[in-house]
Amino acid sequence: MVSHNFRSFAIPTLLLFVIGWGGLFVVLYLALPFVWLRWSFFALLIFALTGTVLPVVYFFHRRFPGEPPAESNVIIRQSVWFGVYGATLAWLQLGRLVTVYVILGLAGGLIAIEYFIRLRESARWKPPIVDDDSTS
Prior knowledge:
Low-confidence stretches: none
Distance between the termini: 33 Å
Radius of gyration: 20 Å
Number of strands: 0
Oligomer: single chain
Strand content: under 5%
Structural class: mainly alpha
Order of helices and strands: HHHH
Mean pLDDT: 90
Largest sheet: none
Number of domains: 1
């Protein structure tokens, strides 16, 4: 069991938020649309969305703890999933491929991936502790 407070997430959240949204402002309003800036748009969008949703994911894990409780890597991973989801939808929108079915299918796929990762983490076998004194 890992008990953590939000202070361990505060600096990464602030950095992701400021770098992501500040970089997006620079890319969208102050830069010319070249190839590397398009790719930086997607990377900064992942940063911005991850930094924005990290406190929300932390709050939900704190409010509705699971069994076993989520560790910090789970909270960060789930926050990054939101960033990847948003950037993927933005990328698909360039080709005008985003429909309701794509939105729901992509969300369902990412939720399924996270479900199976959490299932694997909770099903990790731990061998019983053997007491050497009881064998003699």
